[in-house]
Specification:
10 strands; single chain; three-stranded antiparallel β-sheet; 3 domains; alpha+beta; 189 residues; 2 helices
Length: 189
């Protein structure tokens, strides 16, 4: 720790006390017998390299990779994350944006995650089959109470929809593919 012998103004270089990141140059008035404030130094920092931040360390200054504010994508799930700290980017992240809704990282680029897509499609089909069977049962009960040709047509439409869903599900088991055209559900009357 340096104590000043004389009072006066000196050139100093400010840095963030928590992160050590260089903030800029300024002047400080020092009084004889005192030291500098903790957030500045008389040691001139090096010129900043592109993509780096100049950071104060015990030996003086160092250059640290700076990706703060940039967006990367997690390789395990394709989710976008913003870098908030200094340092190199973890290997688990990439700048490449996933190109597909169902993407999987293949080591150097994104590819289609057909098994996940097929599983989600199966889940959706199962939900639709359950929903449509409830609708058909409800219409059948109402149809017994009152005769209506409109209801019997809707039941047939629902049954055709269920058949198309089951046929698609069987087809996906035999030939997993992306994308799949889903049948349209009939309008409930």
């Amino acid at each position: 720790m340096k104590f000043f012998a004389e009072s006066g103004f000196i050139d100093v270089y400010y840095f963030n006390e928590e992160t050590g990141v260089y903030l800029g140059k300024g002047k400080e008035h020092v009084v004889a017998g005192t030291t500098l404030p903790p957030d500045c130094t008389e040691t001139k920092p090096p010129r900043r390299l592109a993509g780096h931040a100049v950071v104060k360390c015990a030996e003086g200054w160092t250059q640290v990779e700076d990706h703060r504010g940039k967006y990367f994508y997690r390789k395990n799930d394709g989710k976008r994350v913003m870098i908030r700290g200094l340092g190199s980017v973890p290997d688990s992240l990439t700048l490449k944006r996933p190109r597909f809704r169902y993407s999987i990282w293949l080591g150097d680029d994104w590819g289609r995650d057909i098994p996940r897509y097929v599983q989600d499609t199966h889940d959706y089909i199962n939900q639709e089959l359950h929903r449509s069977s409830i609708s058909v049962r409800g219409m059948t009960i109402r149809n017994r109470k009152r005769s209506s040709p409109k209801l019997s047509i809707s039941i047939e439409e629902w049954e055709l929809y269920q058949y198309a869903l089951v046929k698609l599900q069987d087809s996906l088991h035999k030939n997993p593919r992306y994308p799949v055209k889903l049948p349209k559900a009939p309008l409930v009357s």
